[in-house]
Amino acid sequence: MSFIAVASVTVLSCTERMQVEEIRNNSGTSSSMDVLVYTGTDEGSSVSMKSLVQASSSATLEANFIRIDDANAYNSGTPSYPSLSEANIIEADMYAPSAVTEDGKALRSVSFKPQQNYVFDDPGAGADTVFRKTRMVAWYPKLWSRENYEEGVEAKFSEIGDYYYNEGGVVAVTFKEVLDGQTDIMVSDMREGMHQSRAYMSKKEYAVPPFGSENFFTFNHYLTAVKVYVRCKVNDLSLMTWRKINSVVFLDQPTTVSVELPENPGEFGEVVPNSWTDNQNMHIVTTPIYGDSGETASYPVTIVDDVNGTIKDKIYLGYILLQPETPATMELHTDAGVIQLEIPVEMDGKKLLDPGIIYNINIDITSDGKIGIFLENDDDKTFLDLSPWNIEKGFYQTANCYLIDTSEDMNSDGTRKYDGYFFNAMQAGNGNAGVLSVTNRELYPADGAVLHPVSAGILFQTQLNTVRNVELVSGHVRFELNEACYDNVDPLQANAVIAVYDENGDVLWSWLIWVTREAKDITYDIGTGFTMLNMNLGANCAFPEDGDPLRTYGLYYQWGRKDPSPRPPRYNFDMRSMETITFYGTNGEEINYVSEYSSDENIIEDSARNPLLIMEQNIQGPEYAFDWLYNDISSLWGSSTKKTIYDPCPYGYKVPYDEIEKLFDSARYRSNGLSYSSANYGITIYGGINGSNYFPFAGWKGYDTGEPDKGHPWNSCGVTGDYPEARILSTMHRASNRINSLGFVSASTGSNRTSATPVRCVRYDAEP
Predict the structure, then answer these.
(1) Residue 267 covered by a domain
(2) Which tens digit of pLDDT belongs to each residue from 226-254?
(3) Half-sphere exposure of residue 488, counting CA atoms within 13 Å on the CB side?
(4) How remote is the C-alpha of 380 from its chain's centroid?
(5) For residue 604, is it within any domain?
(6) What is the pTM of this model?
(7) Using CB atoms within 10 A as the burial measure, which of 107, 150, 430, 611 is most buried?
């Protein structure tokens, strides 16, 4: 039976943590080597760990319970319970969790030995009996058996000798010399049961066991579990120098711990401080963990396949249950010597080795003086980190868009390298470096670039089921792509917007997932030179297919906003409406239009919390009538040297500052080796160092100067194209460059800041 998840922890960042360990070889001499400890594979991937209570097992676990009966058993007033020391101790069989859940936690059913009854015979009580209450709490493994007690004789908790703990008013159960690397430690919550007699409830029997009509309890786990693998690159024959691994030992692990017992319903026990004692070295357990897939280690473990002499890719070394939240030191005893490694409890602010969690510890051993330790999830899925920790620069590579080229995520044999992807959802945009310094303006988020999401989900997709299985794990969004995205003949190329939400279910922030195989850089020798993408942000292809440029349009952005809007339904679309190409909402519903958001004084938070809505212009704004912001902020998309948290481009790119104008001017006047031609409802610019570049006449969506419609209908699709820059281009406060069949026209006729247009990103290497 599959256990229901109680908790999960995601380890998602890489780290520059370097430490030197001593290697004691067989000759007794020692040498030092660098040990690189990091979370994530060398490709930067890592995933969620699985909770101990998710592990599959049909085994019946023998547990102890204590039962505390109300001292005022026949009093209808407030119950009064004796001390835990006076509680009766009993035995029970505990089963794998049922499908019943409480607050998302697993509930284990229990069969008491002997059977427990909440009805107590007391002939003297008569009709005055109203109710009787009892409380119960359990632990595993069982420490006491009634073998030496007469039938019907009750035993007290205080009678279990070394396993009973009472100091300073703290009553606990001591698991003395029980921890052996394979025995789990669990303590249940405190449950309360009740019986109401025939003198109550219209003379009907009414019994309330601890939970529902059955005996169900939830359990906390107090150890952390690790499954250890050694991983080798199949072509790294240098690993042959390590030959065989003869044993794996975890050093100085405790065998005793005490857990305080709760006294009130719903509470759980806590580990007594300084009770992790009786330390000793423990060998790794070679059997599968909790009825897993059957992996069993056999020592000595050979790194080289004896049959064909090649390196094995991944070898299971066993599992062990450890003291949580404490650095774990392990030794690999090999033919070449003893390698000592430490698994830390925290890296880059992320906690490791939490109680109740199963971690996969994967060890890379090479001959170049480094050992890599990385963590992955217990179901053997691997997720690529889209926003890894940059060791050299010291920041997370976050952005408001993540570009995924699935062809780069395929192995040479056509299989996938990763099952999915994840990114840091605790930073807005490109992080603190992108926070604006604007006085007398309301900025969002209020505390810089910091976000505190509580859930995640799909906001919209341009193709149904492009993105699947979206979840928020420890402040990171994790998701998978449709299998069709990996097709080598006709891969699905589409977009999805993933949002995270606050405790009220309101959008906090959102990100574009841009799936395409055609994006590449085009470099131009103009001025000091610059590099630009060959397609619009969110486009599915770089050049028109069959003369239809629609898939080159990409997504549309109001100036200064990070959030996209879907494209028009046709390339020659001239209807005065808000209709769009069909896209798919949160629940997969078909949508073919967008709506407007309007308030008396629009602010940035309105934009971020309503990412799919077009922000209506503030005609009465005090500074610029055709801006969606009431109070003008002319630096929302940064400058030539700054990328803001509102920039919509992927990591490594930003909205152009003046590159669009320079490019169009050079092509129009055939300078700097550039030229252009007008065809297929757009302009192709030739002369890039590594290719040509097509700019479709994608029009714009919005309220433009001189237009009678106050709404945001489509304008000039297939006729002209507007391409924005971060800078404000003219005294008219416009922000885009307009092109038509004659090339670059001017900024003075470009659309204004309330209009939505495509964006063409330029390469940006000035991250902090």
Answers:
(1) no
(2) 888 886 654 444 445 566 889 999 999 99
(3) 9
(4) 16
(5) yes
(6) 0.58
(7) 430
